[in-house]
Design a protein that fits this description.
By secondary structure, the chain is an alpha/beta fold. The protein has 14 helices and 12 strands.
Length: 333
């Protein structure tokens, strides 16, 4: 039996009535990124490709362009709904650039090198490191092996790496100050891991500025898990000297605090004020709506476009994008 002939780029070009170069220009995705072709021409080429069943050699194209056409989102589970929003916007913008998105979870720092092999071995063109990881990991190898690197960090300064500054420490200090100014005297803090990160340091900054000593009994681990947070807040509310306010490193912990308050018959915000972190969409329709520290709007378009700008030109000067966290007031505090 004879081998079935494969549809070529020239076949598609002839069917669409355009040159091979124009056909390649459209089907490679470049028409969406540089000088656009007339919409009618693009549609004619795409229709011809579909009709003829043309399947481009993506591996060969990637080799010619010296691109993998992949970007990575590096995150530390568990994460909140904000990552869903970031992922969605990355996928939409990546598709417009002819790219795909992969997720790289880093659950344990001692295994990070293994998790990051997809980056350090040059299998992706760009990567975004989500909050926390940028300060805990050495990004040197990832920077050398990728065209573009972007990191959420208020502290990182590395040549050729774009950073997003959230001013986390200042934002958590302002949230805690808001509670102190409202007359709250025993403010608890729900931490992810107990580490001295910027969120915890902001809480400490505010207490010290008001001459209030940090009570170790009020600083508890539990914000990473809603189940753990419920148990921790119940214990705090059952203690002889319960808190009159709680600041959580996550909205997840904030929602758990609201639930624990209901369980113990504690009124929010009269007896207990609650502030979360993340400003997720759920915060606006919890009961009561959760006051939360975070970006005013979860819009990552500018930063994702900046990543692709660096993929196209790795020599661009490093950028600092300011996306400050603010206190979003609702009924829980």
């Amino acid at each position: 039996m004879g081998r079935e002939e494969r549809t070529t780029l020239r076949d598609v070009a002839e069917a669409a009535g355009v040159s091979v170069a124009t056909c390649s220009y459209v089907l490679s995705g470049r028409a969406d990124r540089t000088t656009p072709l007339p919409e009618a021409t693009r549609r004619r080429v795409e229709e011809a490709a579909r009709r003829l069943g043309y399947k481009g050699n993506t591996a060969a194209r990637s080799l010619r362009r010296q691109r993998s056409e992949l970007i990575a989102l590096v995150y530390a589970p568990p994460v909140g709904p904000w990552l869903d929003r970031l992922t969605m916007q990355c996928e939409d913008i990546a598709a417009a650039h002819g790219y795909s998105v992969i997720g790289v979870p880093v659950r344990r720092l001692d295994r990070a090198a293994q998790s990051l092999r997809v980056i350090t071995r040059g299998h992706i063109d760009g990567a975004i490191f989500t909050p926390g990881l940028s300060d805990d990991l050495d990004l040197t190898a990832a920077r050398r092996s990728t065209r573009a690197l972007m990191a959420f960090s208020d502290n990182l300064r590395m040549p050729g790496v774009d950073v997003i500054r959230n001013n986390v420490r200042k934002a958590l200090a302002e949230a805690t100050t808001y509670l102190l100014d409202a007359g709250r005297e025993r403010i608890a803090f729900l931490s992810h891991t107990g580490a001295q990160d910027d969120r915890h340091l902001g809480y400490v900054d505010a207490l010290q500025a008001h001459g209030v000593e940090v009570d170790p009994a009020l600083v508890r681990v539990g914000a990473a898990s809603r189940e753990d947070a419920v148990l921790v807040v119940r214990e705090l509310l059952d203690s002889p000297k319960p808190p009159d306010a709680i600041v959580s490193e996550s909205d997840r912990g904030g929602f758990a605090a609201l639930q624990a308050a209901v369980d113990r018959g504690v009124k929010v915000p009269d007896d207990l004020a609650v502030i979360g972190t993340g400003n997720t969409r759920e915060a606006s329709y919890s009961l009561p709506p959760l006051t939360s520290v975070g970006m005013y709007q979860l819009d990552f378009t500018e930063m994702v476009e900046a990543l692709f700008a660096r993929i196209d030109d790795p020599t661009l000067p490093a950028r600092e994008l300011s996306m400050p966290w603010v206190l979003n007031h609702r009924e829980s505090a």
